[in-house]
Amino acid sequence: MHFTASGSLQGTVDWFKNLNSSVSAHLVIGRDGEIVQMVPFNVQAWHAGKSEWGKYRSLNNHSIGIELVNWGQLKRSVTGLNWVSWTNKQVPNDDIHLNDFRAWQRYTKEQMVAAVEACQAICEAYVIQDILGHSDIAPGRKTDPGPAFPMEVY
Fold first, then answer.
1. Is 117 annotated in the active site?
2. pLDDT band at 47 (very low <50, low <70, confident <90, very high)
3. Of 3.40.50.1980, 3.30.2310.20, 3.90.1230.10, 3.40.80.10, which CATH number belongs to 2-153?
4. Burial class (CB in 10 A: 0-12, 13-18, 19+), 13
5. Which residues contact 118 (CB under 8 A, 6 or more apart)?
6. What is the rounded CA–CA span in Å between residue 27 and residue 45?
7. What is the pLDDT of residues 109-141, one digit of tens each?
8. What's the predicted TM-score (pTM) here?
9. Partners of residue 151 on adjacent β-strands
10. Measured CA distances, 132 to 2, 18, 35, 149, 152 (Å)
C-alpha cells in the first residue's frame, strides 16, 4: 500500500504511463474510489524500490502494488494558517490527520472501501501472505501509506 504524493488520479495515471517516470503500480485508487489498473497482476510493476520483508528482497518481484491518491505528509503554508502539499497545494482542514505534531492527508471513505474490495478480490485470486505498507518494506526510506492510513482497521 502506497500513497501517490499527488492530488489527482489522472495525474498519477499519466505519470505512470510516462516511460521517463520509471515507476508503476498495479492499481491506482482515486479519492472518489475509482480504481484504474495500470499493470496486469501477473506482470512486475515498479513500486517497491529497494525493499525487504522476511526472506524476500526486492519486493517488486513478489508483490502487487496499490497506490492511493493522497498527498501524504503535509507542511504548514507560508502564512502558517493552512496545511499544504509538497507542491504548496492547500489541503482542506477536514482532510487533515494530525499525528505527533505532523499533518497527513486523510484517506477518503470511498478509497478505503475500494482498497478493501480490491484486496479481498486479489486475496481470493492469489496466495497473499501479508498486506503491507511501503514503510513496512522500506523502513527509514519510505513513510507511505503513513499514519492516516487505518491499516489496523482493515
1. no
2. very high
3. 3.40.80.10
4. middle
5. 27, 29, 35, 66
6. 10
7. 999 999 999 999 999 999 998 999 999 999 999
8. 0.94
9. none
10. 9, 26, 19, 11, 11
CA–CA dist 1, 16 (Å, integer): 16
Point out the catalytic residue in the list 52, 67, 110, 124: 67
DSSP one-letter code for 46: S
User: Considering just the CA atoms, what is the radius of gyration of the chain in Å?
Assistant: 15
Q: Are 115 and 68 in contact (CB under 8 A)?
A: yes
Which of these, 39, 42, 53, lies nearest to 134 by C-alpha position? Answer: 53
DSSP notation for 58-87: SGGGG---EEE----EEEE-TTSSSEE-TT
What end-to-end distance do the CA atoms of the chain give, in Å? 12
Q: How does pLDDT run across 48-103, given as a tens digit for each residue?
A: 999 999 999 999 999 999 999 999 999 999 998 899 999 999 999 999 999 888 99
Model pLDDT, residue 153: 67
